[in-house]
């Protein structure tokens, strides 16, 4: 038995993703069993999407290996359609009150996305703002969000918290984007609380 086989056996026994697999895969903090189920869900999502080459009613943002490219594509397609310079376009994030199951068709511009979680706070769906987290709710799921491109000078800048989006709770190297979420509190409160959106928990 080679040392590589022994390392693989040890990883399988300890329910960790083997290092050669993790090197070729997306960032994840999940154990092997959860990671493999997540991988199957990603493949299923992509197969459904490529089956008819139509934009799904809501996009599972977590399912992308590189979500930044999808977010950039939203901006590029809108900028091309409206004749805007790409460097003067920003991504507007509107959190809806809907669940994934309630949406039957994609929006005319942009995309509905789901599968994000908020860490450090929660989203108050009734008020439509960031609110204090509840006890024992470490990362509550977010409602469906509408992402669309707008001219950078028309993006909401008051009463918003520039919320970073990360792929995993490790944050740092897994940074994806910054979504501007509505808040009644000063943004500094959420900065101190370490509020962020996560694609997987």
From TrEMBL:
A GO term (biological process) for this protein?
A: microtubule-based movement
Cellular component terms (Gene Ontology): dynein complex
Q: Name one GO molecular function term.
A: dynein intermediate chain binding
Q: Give every Dynein heavy chain C-terminal domain span.
A: 1-199
Give the highest taxon in the source lineage.
Eukaryota
Q: What InterPro entries does the record point to?
A: DHC, Dynein_C, Dynein_C_barrel
**What Pfam families has UniProt attached to this entry?**
Dynein_C
What name does UniProt use for this protein?
Answer: Dynein heavy chain 9
Q: Which organism is it from?
A: Camelus dromedarius
Its organism's taxonomic lineage begins at: Eukaryota, Metazoa, Chordata, Craniata, Vertebrata
């Amino acid at each position: 038995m080679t040392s590589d086989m022994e390392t693989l056996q040890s990883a399988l026994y300890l329910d960790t993703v083997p290092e050669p697999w993790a090197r070729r895969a997306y960032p994840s903090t999940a154990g092997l069993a959860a990671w493999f189920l997540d991988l199957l869900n990603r493949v299923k999502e992509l197969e459904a999407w490529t089956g008819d080459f139509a934009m799904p009613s809501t996009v599972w943002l977590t399912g992308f290996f590189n979500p930044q490219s999808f977010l950039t594509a939203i901006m590029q397609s809108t900028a091309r359609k409206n004749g805007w310079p790409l460097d003067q376009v920003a991504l507007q994030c509107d959190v809806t009150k809907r669940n994934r199951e309630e949406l039957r068709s994609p929006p005319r511009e942009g995309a509905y996305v789901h599968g994000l979680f908020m860490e450090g706070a929660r989203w108050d769906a009734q008020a439509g703002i960031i609110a204090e987290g509840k006890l024992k709710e470490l990362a509550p799921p977010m409602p469906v969000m509408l992402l669309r491109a707008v001219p950078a000078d028309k993006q909401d800048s008051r009463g918003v918290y520039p919320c970073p989006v990360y792929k995993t709770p490790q944050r740092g190297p897994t940074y994806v984007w910054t979504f501007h979420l509505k808040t009644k509190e000063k943004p500094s409160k959420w900065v101190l609380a370490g509020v962020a959106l996560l694609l997987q928990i």
